[in-house]
What does this fold into?
Amino acid sequence: MANNTDRLVHRLLDIGLSQEMIDLSLPDWWVAEDNESPSARAMASMLLARRLNLDPTTLLDDEVPLGFLHTGVSKFKHMRLADGVRRDALVGFATGVGRILLSMAENEPGHVVPANPLELRKALISGRPFVSFGDVIAACWSLGVPVLHLRVFPAQTKGVTAIAVKLGARHAILVARESGFDAQYMFHVAHELGHIALGHLGEGGAIVDADPNDPANKRDELIDDEEEQSADAYAQALLTGAPSFEVFGSEEMRGRQRLGTGRELATRAQQLSGELAVDPGHLVMVFGHSTGDWELAFAAANQLPRQPHKPGSLVNRVMWSQLGELQADEHSIAFLQAVAPI
It folds into this structure.
């Protein structure tokens, strides 16, 4: 780990990267004295450029401000993050992780993600009671869109939930928000898949989605647009069969007046799940979104069957299983293991 007299570390801190991110991105052997070694600086610069999407020429010259490589247009949804170091660091990190992930998953051929979510739903629900969390993750991988759960971030961000990146003709989804509920996590992934399917990402671009309900996001900072609405509609149609999905009647929509306990709401959701072929967990999340009564929705979700592990752990378990016998270089494997452990 580099110490506080390290020139390179100070330059990385100055562009908004966290100390944790810097420690993970630098090679294990790096010490402050390596600043005086041209060969050590060159090797460290190569790794930093790959991992964080930094311009390697700016890494080699202390007199030149550090800069990120320009890739493509980045879009920030449900949040306003002004141009500056935090924005560049977030996009640079996501691009770097996406590039490494896609290079390691190169044996997974890319396919066109159906623009019609009902087409994908039909394929997923065949012989199944509903489209589940596992179905959505498996669909992404089968379409050549690897999914990864991030455990480390380059800088403080406001309520980021997930990031979709496009490099060449390939896409990847990086989930940034852990959830105790499969259904909530599933919707974030389905939403990013919607962005990909509907062509919202340009070459080398990224879409950064934040949770509009996160207390870290001020209401007057939130941005919603047609792309967000269409990605939401895509996710809803994939999970429910209807882009604009409402299920509970007017009396039930009054929340506690009709469905007074989490157990009652969970029971009702399980009944409707069989009738509508929709995940009961998603049904209670729809209730929470429609009524604003998230306390009751989460109480109901806690009454439904759950996986023993959190969704992010399962996503990374699937990722490492899909990557199989890795042919990537040891530096790429080590970095991915650091930012996306099980």
Q: What stands out?
A: The beta strands are 74-77, 147-149, 160-167, 170-175, 206-210. Residues 252-301 form one domain. The mean pLDDT is 87. Residues 85-104 form the longest helix (20 residues).
